[in-house]
Design a protein that fits this description.
Blueprint (H helix, E strand, L loop, with lengths): L9 E4 L7 E11 L5 E9 H4 L4 H13 L8 E7 L5 H4 L8 H4 L4 E3 L6 E3 L3 H4 L5 E7 L6 H10 L16 H9 L9 E4 L24 E2 L22 H5 L1 H6 L2 H6 L3 H19 L1 H7 L6 H7 L3 H15 L3 E6 L8 H25 L6 E6 L3 E2 L22 E2 L3 E6 L8 E2 L1 E2 L6 E3 L4 H12 L6 E3 L5 E3 L12
Parallel strand pairs: 4-10, 4-11, 7-15, 8-9, 8-10
Antiparallel strand pairs: 1-2, 2-3, 5-6, 7-14, 11-14, 12-13, 16-17, 18-19
Length: 479
Amino acid sequence: MSTDASVPCQSFLPDPKGPPMFRLDLGSTGRYCDGISRRSFVQLGVAGMGAIGLPQLLRAKEESVQSGVSGKKTSVILLWLDGGPSHLDLYDLKPEAPLECRGIWNPIPTNADGIEISELFPLQAKCADKFSIVRSLHHGTGDHFTAGHYILTGRGGVSGADTQSKSPFIGSIATKMTGPRQPGMPPYVAVPYGMSIGLRPGYFGANYVGASHNPFETDGDPNAASFQVQNMQVPGGMTVSRLEDRASLAKHFDRMRRDVETKGMLESMDRFDRQALDLVTGANARTAFDISLEDPRVRDRYGRHNWGQSTLLARRLVEAGTTFVTVHFGGWDHHWDLKSGMERYLPMVDQLVSALLEDLTQRGLYEDVLVMLCGEFSRTPRMNNGGNGGPPLSMGTPGRDHWGNAMFCLLAGGGVKGGRIVGSTNRLGEVPQDRPVTPADIHHTMFHVLGIDRNISFLNHSGRPTPALEPGDVIQELL
């Protein structure tokens, strides 16, 4: 991943020390707390795609099937709060702590005994019996990139000084093993895109499990009247019958195929080819992505904003057979102006989470869809002064800084029990007080829900077998 903004929009960049790379400039992101406005690139290396042999990959998948993992048809919707939401202002308030720790808002009771959440979550308070909260999640780092890599891949190895992904996103691994839950649907979709800390697809990418397992990205704003998913229409001058003629379509790739000798590259191209045909010619996929077909009253319940409609689109996709959907909610890096940020964002999150859980229940999907809500880390228990000097809260626009020693993850549906709290933090919300949970424990729980062999391994770029998951355990209290 590069941050060189001088690169042309599309270029073929030969590497004097290795194979050629294709780079697509996807535009710039907003500034993060280090002041850098990053440009995001997709970079596709011909040799990199062939780092894993197809026979080994097929054998790994077959071994997973034979190990008795599956029959399950569960899907996952991951609502990603990019930038780091504060546990102390959302789901783990500390009303007895000093003012600068407990923050601005009060907790309110919910319909689940013993569970209190932010007063900015009145709708979720009415359906807390449908979700559970892990309050003792931690990984110990305050670096955006290290933290994001831990939460999304289960592993460290990156930092602000070396942001390139080292491992595959957990959802890419999952959907490599399961495929879609219904034929004709993409197994892994990112709405509107897969992005982590300004990197696209960043730590939502498939890495060494193969580029064909990167997310299918919708792009655009599902709340816009003109919203249309890219690559879902028959190209100009083509017909469905011509597209379905594989021999005719293959002629367009002949020249490239002659120039490529790596089996993995051809296998990935074939997957892209098949998926493109399925999406364009399959009525199931075209209908699922067309959010304009949704009942306007349901759209209103989710909220007529980008976040709400993106979440509704995620529900449409899992209902149609997509296995894993990520939804990107950016802007959670609140070092200052925390009050206005939370008062803007939390009502939207409250609306979309409550609407999603109600909708899944009414459609009979609640037990088949695991909903997760989290970010890369949390924020400091002690509020700052907004960068304007003086003691905490004395002036400026107070906020919270990076904190990876205690954070939350909300889980609901998919066989997970609702109305439960797993773990707790100490009096000031600084560290786990009991039942500490790691990102790997979340991933093991997710694989269990999806019916995937938790002991499966893949070959990394060096050809070495690498476990899909770091050591961890299923969170039994949730099941």
